[in-house]
């Protein structure tokens, strides 16, 4: 654990089972992680699979303040995925819950197990739109313009 907390952004998604419920419950689970608290959460969004298969996804982005190190946070996120029934039968398989560590403070990490910032953030409307909702200063207009052809809908009433 770190002495000083850091703000991390996490992408959430699901396209199997009760996807909306899985993402909503994941917000609560993030807030319950040791040394971590949920500080912001986006609305839920519905999107077509991007470089993946299966039904439409429910997506969101969360900001957490955490004392966990980046590897500890990644391990905790993977534990939440497993608890939600996540299986990885093949690359980009449909999933009950997917949690991606998008950024960890202003840190840059490149290891065999973790790359931060997430290498494909700027290619995915399902990350950029919810992220822009809660942290507009973190999302560049040109990145939003590049993904404007990807179908994504904010779910009202959430």
Can you tell me about this structure?
With 158 residues, the chain is α+β, with helices and mostly antiparallel strands. The protein has a single domain, classed as Alpha-Beta Plaits, CATH 3.30.70.560. It is 27% helix and 27% strand. The chain has four helices and eight strands; from the N terminus they run βαβββαβββααβ. The chain has helices spanning 19-31, 70-83, 125-134, 141-146; strands at residues 6-14, 36-41, 45-47, 57-66, 98-104, 109-110, 115-116, 152-154. Strands 1, 2, 3, 4, 5 and 8 form a six-stranded antiparallel sheet that branches. A hairpin with a 4-residue loop joins strand 6 (109-110) and strand 7. It starts with 5 loop residues before the first strand and ends with a strand. The mean pLDDT is 89.
Beta-strand level of the residues, as a percent range? Answer: 25-35%
CATH topology group: Alpha-Beta Plaits
Specify the CATH class. Alpha Beta
Question: What structural class should be given to the helix and strand makeup?
Answer: alpha+beta
Rg over alpha carbons: 15 Å
